[in-house]
Design brief:
Elements: H1 14-19, H2 30-44, H3 61-67, E1 78-90, E2 93-100, E3 103-110, H4 111-114, H5 121-130, E4 136-145, E5 151-162, E6 172-174, E7 177-179, H6 185-190, H7 192-198, H8 202-222, E8 226-227, E9 233-234, E10 246-249, E11 254-258, H9 263-271, E12 276-284, E13 296-305, H10 309-328, E14 332-335, E15 338-341, E16 347-350, H11 351-359, H12 368-377, H13 388-400, E17 408-411, E18 433-438, E19 441-448, H14 453-469, H15 479-487, E20 492-498, H16 499-507, H17 532-537, H18 542-550, H19 556-560, H20 564-577, H21 587-595
Helix pairs in contact: 8-10, 8-16, 9-15, 11-13, 12-13, 14-15
This protein binds one RNA strand through α1, α2, β1, β2 and β3.
Length: about 600
RNA sequence: GAUUAUGUAGCUCAGCAGGUAGAGCACAUCCCUUUUAAGGAUGGGGUCCUGGGUUCGAAUCCCAGCAUGAUCACCA
């Protein structure tokens, strides 16, 4: 960063100018200006606010807090670094809360310990005046317990490692009650780094997220399955009924789609001879955003040869049980109002039975028109474009889904809504499919994979008909995938699980935005500004620039559109109100500037 | 996409039968050698989201827009 940024001339006589509003930068608050001033003073005092050399850290705050009570002889010589989160200055002694990656620990800083001899300027000026909450420091010292009983570090040496120029929101907590919490969702998500610094628990959620993925990976690897990567940019977005994002490849001059699923590629790899392949993948769907949907989201899909969906059910519940145990040490997990028991085995209910149970209608053997009639009776909107499978899905979604709070496998879906799934071995109207529901939401989806290439082609063609009826989520025909199947795919079972949702359940988060570091947001609006130099180029005096900006004119083009008389009044009003020691504006001068634009 | 709520200081929020913009924390100055959502005193800090309208006068009322949340629709 260029040093000139900090040597803004109008900062030199700071206290005086600070009172004169018209010199204050539009985008910097008073507190930010103070910090830039401190930064300059540090540099003048020969202290590099951003030193290059490493700082030797030999302990983390959490280790001290955990081990010191057991043995007070420990930690006679600690070296620790972190961010200043609070400061209590009591004359010649101060208390600082230092936050490192593992938590917070109190520092006790005594003037005569950190200063050499009679010269107290390091404490009185550098520490007290030029350092702020948010600065990153490194300290050495020894651990002791204060009279109040708090484990603290008695600091013998203190070094500034990074100066913070923006004030942090100060969140305080007493007896579990938060004060001044940094809670605005927009700011939390847009500035996740601030959220992570000041809000306890945010970091924990994301650490858990990583642990969940690690636990699953261990489970798959222990069985010898191979983690693979498949294309994100796809010419045909297959494997799921969803609206894709579309992009364009210049060199090939073709449209490419961001994947909505990785199913078809993973199955090609089973054709290629792997026993089991899995992928943690970002998928992209161009659909609505809400508490449970983000345009990009993470899915884990796994395909295992020579297995069926019954095997996969056992496999899935074992995997989830392991994740819960690895994360919480128990299979019982609190989610909102509910305690969810992830102990195997999970309940298993057929879709037909689920609908029978929650609606009273037995739809087995019904044709499309009969089911449409059931929808009408149940007051479920059914559009003409909906086929039999979609209609059944609507009924299930409207009347059944929400009842499955405890982990439940819904099995044996109608053939129309599962075009990539093998027909049921006992009933050709059904498929060998299950979805796992938790807390009324779909969490995982699995099949005995369809490996009959002729059947698969027909199913795709059914989808094509749906598409012609207006279902814009119906699948495309992937000819290469069909070709792969024609070479022969072993009987295979595949399963996909939404990682974001799993993380939500496992961390008691009720919004997907809380388990994504950077959830999708509308872009921040940028304020367009004409530079001071451009204003001066048309003859505007430097001291009038700020008043003009205050009057709401940040660009020359906006100034050109201005009502001159109103602007004239506003500017002189501003001058009078702020008692600015500058010549009054005259109308001719103003007109002259504007004529030059 | 629809409905609805919210948008005031760095943070959390008051204020609104229309009449000079408030609090706590943060910040600044001063005092204080061990405090615990930090002790005392003093002080600075606001395009009251934006643009229109009504009005002598709008943070406050009306309309439109923008942003965010919630609910619904779509979906995982």
């Amino acid at each position: 960063m260029s040093a000139s940024l900090f040597r803004i001339s109008h900062l030199t006589d700071f206290p005086y100018l600070c009172k004169k509003k018209y010199f204050m930068s539009l985008e910097l608050s008073e507190q930010e200006l103070f910090r830039r001033k401190s930064l300059e003073e540090l540099q003048n005092a020969g202290i590099n606010p951003y030193p290059a050399d490493l700082f030797e850290v030999n302990v983390k705050s959490s280790e001290i807090l955990a081990n010191y009570p057991k043995d007070n002889n420990l930690y006679k010589n600690v070296s620790i670094a972190g961010r200043i989160m609070s400061r209590r200055i009591m004359g010649a002694a101060s208390f600082v809360e230092l936050q490192d990656s593992t938590g917070r620990i109190q520092l006790y800083i005594k003037r005569d310990d950190i200063c050499q001899g009679e010269d107290t300027s390091f404490y009185n000026n550098v520490f007290k005046k030029m350092m702020d909450i948010g600065d990153i420091i490194g300290v050495t010292g020894f651990v002791f317990t204060t009279q109040m009983g708090e484990i603290s570090i008695h600091v013998s040496d203190l070094k500034l490692l990074s100066k913070s120029l923006k004030p942090l929101p100060i969140v305080k907590e007493k007896d579990g009650v938060l004060f001044d919490a940094f809670s605005d969702p927009e700011q939390r998500y847009r500035q996740r780094y601030v959220d992570l610094i000041v809000n306890e628990g945010v970091k924990e959620t994301f650490i858990k997220r990583t642990k969940i993925v690690q636990s699953m990976r261990e489970f798959f690897n222990s069985k010898g399955y191979l983690e693979v990567e498949t294309p994100i940019l796809q010419a045909i977005p297959g494997g799921a009924a969803a609206r894709p994002f579309i992009t364009h490849h210049n060199a090939l001059n073709i449209p490419l789609y961001l994947r909505v699923a990785n199913e078809l590629y993973l199955k090609r790899l089973i054709v290629g001879g792997f026993d089991g392949v899995y992928e943690f993948s970002k998928d992209f769907r161009n659909e609505g955003m809400d508490r449970t949907h983000n345009p990009e989201f993470t899915v884990m899909e796994i395909y295992v040869a020579y297995k069926d969906y019954k095997w996969m059910m056992d496999f899935t519940e074992q995997m989830i049980e392991k994740v819960a145990k690895d994360l919480h040490g128990t299979t019982m997990v609190r989610f909102g109002e509910n305690d969810i028991e992830f102990k195997t085995p999970f309940a298993r209910v057929t879709m037909i039975d689920a609908i029978k149970e929650h609606t009273g209608f037995d739809i087995s053997g019904m044709d499309e028109d009969q089911i449409r009639e059931v929808c009408t009776k149940l007051h479920i909107e059914a559009e003409p474009s909906m086929g039999k499978g979609k209609l059944i899905d609507e009924i299930f979604g409207a009347k059944c889904e929400q009842h499955y709070i405890q982990p439940t496998f819904i099995i044996d879906y109608p053939v129309e809504m599962s075009p990539l799934c093998k027909k049921h071995r006992l009933n050709p109207e059904l498929t060998e499919r299950f979805e796992l529901f938790v807390n009324g939401k779909e969490l995982a989806n699995a099949y005995s994979e369809l490996n009959d290439p002729i059947d698969q082609r027909e199913r795709f063609q059914e989808q094509l008909k749906l598409s012609e009826k207006g279902d814009d989520e119906a699948m495309f025909i992937d000819q290469d995938f069909l070709r792969a199947l024609e070479y022969g795919m072993p009987p295979t079972s595949g399963m996909g699980i939404g990682i974001d949702r799993l993380v939500m359940f496992m961390t008691n988060s009720n919004s997907i935005q809380d388990v994504l570091f950077f959830p999708q947001m509308r872009p921040e609006k940028k304020v367009v500004q004409t530079s001071d130099e451009d204003f001066m180029a048309i003859g505007v005096h430097e001291y009038w620039i700020q008043p003009i900006r205050k009057a709401g004119f940040n660009t020359l083009s906006a100034l050109k559109e201005a009502n001159i008389n109103k602007l004239f009044n506003d500017l002189n009003g501003f001058r009078k109100k702020n008692k600015l020691d500058i010549p009054a504006m005259n109308l001719g001068e103003l007109t002259d500037w504007i004529s030059k634009i």
